[in-house]
Amino acid sequence: MAKFIKSKFRVLWGTVFSFFAGLFTTDISSQEAEDQNSNDAADVVEETKENELDAGAIAAAVAAAAALLNGTDGQDAPAPTPAPTPAPTPAPTPAPTPAPTPAP
């Protein structure tokens, strides 16, 4: 039981450490990018325009991804529809009880 708890604490601390490590490294890299870009306002505007994607490029990428996921470009038959569920069987009707016969 102690080994199980110890392994769970390792996973927990590893997760916490990787979260903060990722948080700090992205913060530092973004600060470095800001320092490099703060030299000239015109350079900043020019660089941001270079990094932006055109709406047409995004639409083309999405269409290409959809075509790749589809795979066969519509050559396959459509997927069959599931069979309808059968109607529930009716409850059996009880047999009528015979009338009592008179005693002889």
Low-pLDDT segments, ≥5 res: none
Mean pLDDT across all amino acids: 69
Helix and strand sequence: HHH
Global shape: elongated
Between the first and last Cα atoms, what is the distance in angstroms? 84 Å
Strand content: under 5%
Total helical elements: 3
Helix and strand composition category? mainly alpha
Helix content: 55-70%
Please report the total strand number as a whole number. Answer: 0
Query: What multimeric state do the chains show?
Result: single chain
Largest sheet descriptor: none
Q: Rg from C-alpha positions?
A: 36 Å
Describe the structure.
The protein has 104 residues and is mostly helical. It is 61% helix and 0% strand. The chain is built from 3 helices and no strands. The longest helix is centred in the first third of the chain and has 36 residues, at 2-37. It is elongated. The termini are far apart. The mean pLDDT is 69.
Short description:
The protein is mainly alpha-helical. It is 61% helix and 0% strand.
Q: How are the SSEs ordered, and which strands pair?
A:
Layout: H1 2-37, H2 41-51, H3 55-70
Structure keywords:
104 residues; mainly alpha; 3 helices; 61% helix; 0% strand; elongated
